[in-house]
Amino acid sequence: MSSAAQVYEAWLAVVYDEDEGLTGVQTEGATDEELGAFEKHFAVKLPASFRELYRLSNGTTDVDGHEQIFWPLSAMKNAYLDPGDPNATWLGFADFRLQAATLYLRIDRATAATSVWLDRKEPLTATFDDYLTCYAEAPLFWTPSGAEDE
Length: 150
Known about the structure:
This protein has helices at 3-13, 32-42, 48-56, 128-137, and strands at 68-70, 79-82, 85-96, 101-108, 114-118, 122-125.
């Protein structure tokens, strides 16, 4: 099973409040047309694992059991072009504790290579595939500040 499928399965298993009937945080998946329009709009090539995950679920409806939320494509309204990093586009795709920390996908515009960063300051993984693998195994593998106090 791919890492994207493992993450999706974990989202399906999330239960918050049985009185409200929430049985997961997954949403309907994005279509290939929506993903293509997103890539065209931001002039980027998304990694295959990102496309796979978002075809399964276009973000999450709420925070998962680890206080993280993956934004739907429609919420990723801004791509950051950093003058200090002119060869990359930065896309915020998830956050922890309602933006106490934001996770960014850094996409090299020349090579389409990707990496995942915490608040555009600290690299977490060399690829989005690596990020999904780590997230599937231990969602808070990156130990956000303040989380270790609980």
